[in-house]
Inverse folding.
C-alpha cells in the first residue's frame, strides 16, 4: 500500500483529496492517510478529523508528500518539513522542481486543469505531469498518478513551464475574453446566453481540428470592412486595443501559411 499525505487545503488540494478517496473506494493500492491544513475546518467536510493535522511536526510517515499550496508558499513549506530523504513533490505548473528543499527527494505532481471549489471534475480525464530526480521515485509517482488519472505524462521543468504559459493563453485569457463579450452584451441589452452554443462549438472543434484549421472570422478572411466597423463600434479603449492586437496576430499568422 502506497501511503500519501497532502499538504494544503486550497482548490487543488481539495480535488486531490476527493480523487484519492475515490481511488481508495475503488480498491487501489493508494491510501490517503493524512492532510495538513492550517485551518482544519477547511477540509473537515472531506475526511474525518483524525486524518487532518494543522501541525507540520505531526505529519504521519508516508511514501509520498504532495505539497498543494500557492506557488509562493512551496519553498517555505518544503523547508519546514520535519524529516529527511522522503519523496516530496509540489503541484505547481510554473515552479521548478529545484525550489524544493534539499533535505528530501524532489518531484512534481502537476494536474493540468482549472479547479474551482465545490465544482466536481472527472479526475480520470485530467492530465497529470510528473517529474522526479530518479527513476525509482518516478515509478512511484507514476503508480500514484495512474490510480486517479488515465492521462499521465513525463514532463520536465522547462516543458512544464511551456505548458503553463500555453494554459494561461488557452484558459485564463480565453475566459477574460468571455467576460469582455458578456460585458459588451450587457451594455447593449443582449442576452449572453445567445453566445453559449458558439462557445461550446469553438471548444468542441479543437477536439477534431488543429487551432489553425479551426480559425474563422473577419481577421482570418481579411475582411477589412467588418474589422473597421467593429473598431468603430468599440468605445472602450481597452477592448479596442485587445481587438486590434488579436486581429493583427491572426492576420500575421495567416501570412506564414
Amino acid at each position: 500500500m502506497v501511503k500519501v499525505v497532502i499538504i494544503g487545503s486550497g482548490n487543488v488540494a481539495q480535488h486531490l483529496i476527493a480523487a484519492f478517496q475515490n481511488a481508495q473506494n475503488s480498491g487501489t493500492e493508494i491510501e490517503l492517510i493524512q492532510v495538513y491544513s492550517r485551518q482544519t475546518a477547511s477540509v473537515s467536510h472531506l475526511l474525518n478529523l483524525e486524518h487532518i493535522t494543522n501541525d507540520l511536526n505531526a505529519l504521519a510517515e508516508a511514501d509520498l508528500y504532495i505539497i498543494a499550496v500557492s506557488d509562493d508558499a512551496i519553498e517555505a513549506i518544503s523547508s519546514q518539513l520535519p524529516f529527511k530523504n522522503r519523496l516530496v513533490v509540489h503541484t505547481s505548473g510554473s515552479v521548478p522542481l529545484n525550489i524544493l528543499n534539499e533535505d528530501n527527494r524532489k518531484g512534481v505532481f502537476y494536474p493540468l486543469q482549472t479547479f474551482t471549489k465545490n465544482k466536481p471534475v472527472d479526475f480520470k480525464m485530467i492530465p497529470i505531469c510528473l517529474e522526479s530526480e530518479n527513476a525509482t521515485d518516478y515509478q512511484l509517482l507514476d503508480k500514484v498518478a495512474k490510480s486517479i488519472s488515465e492521462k499521465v505524462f513525463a514532463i520536465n521543468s522547462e516543458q512544464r513551464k511551456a505548458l503553463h504559459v500555453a494554459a494561461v493563453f488557452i484558459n485564463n485569457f480565453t475566459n477574460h475574453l468571455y467576460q469582455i463579450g458578456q460585458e459588451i452584451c450587457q451594455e447593449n441589452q443582449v442576452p449572453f446566453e445567445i453566445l453559449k452554443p458558439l462557445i461550446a462549438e469553438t471548444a468542441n472543434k479543437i477536439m477534431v481540428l488543429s487551432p489553425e484549421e479551426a480559425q474563422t472570422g473577419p481577421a482570418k478572411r481579411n475582411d477589412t470592412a467588418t474589422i473597421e466597423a467593429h473598431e468603430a463600434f468599440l468605445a472602450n479603449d481597452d477592448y479596442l486595443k485587445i481587438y486590434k492586437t488579436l486581429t493583427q496576430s491572426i492576420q500575421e499568422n495567416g501570412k506564414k501559411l
